[in-house]
Amino acid sequence: MLLAAMAPDAVPAPAPAPEPTRPGLRKIAPYWYPYTAMAKGRWLNREILEIVSTEFRDRSVEYYRYALESGVTTINGKIAKADTIVRNGDRIENIVHRHEPPVASKPVKILHEDREREFIVIDKPGSIPVHATGRYFYLSLVEILQREFGYPKVYTVNRLDRLTSGLMIIGLSSPRAHALSQEFVQGGVKKEYVARCSGEFPAEEEVVVDQPLLTVDRQMGLNIVHPEGKLAKTVFKRLNYDRSTNTSVLLCRPLTGRSHQIRVHLQYLGHPIANDPVYSESKIWGPNLGKGGIDTTPSHERAPPVPPPHLLATDTATSTNASSQPLPRESGKDIGMGSPVPLSADAVGVITRLRNMKDENEDWSRWRDVVFKAKGRLHPKGMPHQKLPPQNRRKRGGPGWTEGESVTYVAGSSPGKEETPRPQVADAAPLTDEEALAILDPASPFAENPLVRVAPAPDAPTEIGRAKQAAAQIAVQEENDGALYCNECYLPLHPDPPPERLYIFLHALRYTTSLGVFETDMPEWAAQGWQWERT
Fold first, then answer.
1. Residue 385: pLDDT band by 50, 70, 90 thresholds?
2. DSSP conformational letter for 104
3. How far apart are CA 348 and CA 470, in angstroms?
4. This protein's superkingdom (predicted)?
5. How far apart are alpha carbons 315 and 319 in whole angstroms?
6. Partner of 466 for a Cys bridge, out of 20, 24, 458, 497, CB 3.0 to 4.6 A?
7. 3-state secondary structure of 16
8. How far is CA 495 from CA 173, 362, 447, 482, in A?
């Protein structure tokens, strides 16, 4: 339920979070966030629980059910329940407690500013998304440029993945941005990237890959080489090879602009980006890491998501589904729903393993997402909520706040009705240690240990796994004044990630355009002999 929406300038940014325990990170405090959206075509005539659990994977199915039952979502001004059907023209309003993941503290750099020709050139750090998306809003590039650099409005021209760093051209007016975008689309911009890939890349003058690319899973942002994909062509040239790390630094020239083009073409060659968490992961692709592509013969095989082995006994993701038919996400039927072509068994397997790996990496949030069931409904604190306008004056999406007349949202009421708003209820009290332990693990040997508080006992199948679980719990407590869960939405809190896991070895180095040639410095990881901590 984390739909991206642009916030008006009048809405202040949330307070910064306390200094991260781990240096090199930038964080902000969690905040309540309202948004509105008009029903999309693919949502029509479907239950809202099915929609949100299929479209978004930030939380468990059971949490989405709980949030809907709390009354924080309305459709056309009326409280929406899990089985509410979304119809054409519906206006959906929702309030979420956003926990933005930390990003690297490396600042955005303005490399060139041309007020007369209405554009700027910037160096984007890896880890920062360009637009508000998923769990990110204030820590997105557009918001940073507007709120911290004072640009009233910015218009992105070329986009970089969140994990990719480097050069971006930003328009300061819509006409300039449109003209630059056309230059990119028509191939008038010469783009040069630098990457560090696995293995000893061929030392020939150039290696050219022209395999077509297809996005097969919109949720995961997964792309593969596929005969029905879009034309894509990349030219690679080796700059140096490090025998100590068995990695090569390459100059990459994408002649087209497909999503994940360089990453997938390097994987196809058998030399994926060395620290790519998706295209260089044997848990997803197997020991061959997708070299030469995967089989694309269509298949209808599907499998439901599998909880991590050490949590099989405590999985509650589907325990209270009142329907006899599992939701698409619970059965695996949602895999391929957004694909433009029928998926092969190999593609389905890759997507399933990618989802399961992400679930396992975040099992503290997903598979133990049960604490919320012990307490009352979510209670957004004093959140102004816009009255629903007449049908013919409704906005086509956007934030759910207004500078004009508003009412204070109260869980269980129906914002938008012409009635006197009820007084705001008292904040829901956080769980006591005993309540949380009774839900999570009644037999926990830590039940009497006040230092662990509500933490379940580490129960990974290996000693190393249990040690990692325990270390994560301690880190969360140290970073959050002893708390393991958010006291407003009961979200299980995560330990801060190492900054080096927030980016990949891919950097936009140089663009040659009609406005000039722009470039950044070489990233530090491109230096000969550079070492990094591998996980």
1. very low
2. E
3. 34
4. Eukaryota
5. 8
6. 458
7. strand
8. 40, 11, 22, 12
Burial class of residue 423 (count of CB atoms within 10 Å of its CB; 0-12, 13-18, 19+): exposed
Q: Among all residues, which ones are annotated catalytic?
A: 161
CB 125 within 8 A of CB 108: yes
| Token pair recorded at residue 310 | 């050490």
Determine whether 177 is exposed, middle or buried from the number of CB atoms within 10 Å of its CB (0-12, 13-18, 19+). Answer: buried
Cα–Cα distance list, 116 to 120, 147, 212, 522 (Å): 11, 22, 39, 29
DSSP letter for each residue of 391-454: GGG--SSB-S--SSSEEE--TTS-TTSSSPPPPPPPPPPPPPHHHHHHHH-TT-TTTT-TTTTT
What pLDDT score does 12 carry? 53
Radius of gyration, CA atoms only, the chain: 24
Question: What are 54-94's pLDDT values in tens digits?
Answer: 877 666 677 788 778 877 788 998 889 999 999 999 999 88
Whole-Å CA distances, 355 to 341, 348, 370, 453, 454: 20, 11, 20, 30, 27
* Cα dist from 190 to 158, 263, 364, 519, 526, whole Å: 12, 18, 44, 12, 21
Taking the mean position of all CA atoms in its chain, how far away is CA 341? 24
155: enclosing H helix or E strand: strand 155-156
Tokens 């629980």 label which residue? 49
Amino acid at 12: P
Report the run of H or E that residue 349 belongs to, with start and end. helix 345-361
**Structure token digits, residue 440:** 């999570």
Indicate if the pLDDT at residue 126 is higher than 50.
yes
pLDDT single digits (tens) 268-317? 999 999 999 999 999 999 999 999 999 999 887 776 666 555 545 444 44
Query: Phi and psi dihedrals of 194, rounded to 5?
Result: -125, 140
The torsion defined by the Cα of 369, 373, 375 and 378, in degrees rounded to 10, comes to 70
Q: How far is CA 89 from CA 32, 43, 361, in A?
A: 26, 11, 38
Range with top average pLDDT, 370-384, 435-449, 470-484, 503-517: 503-517
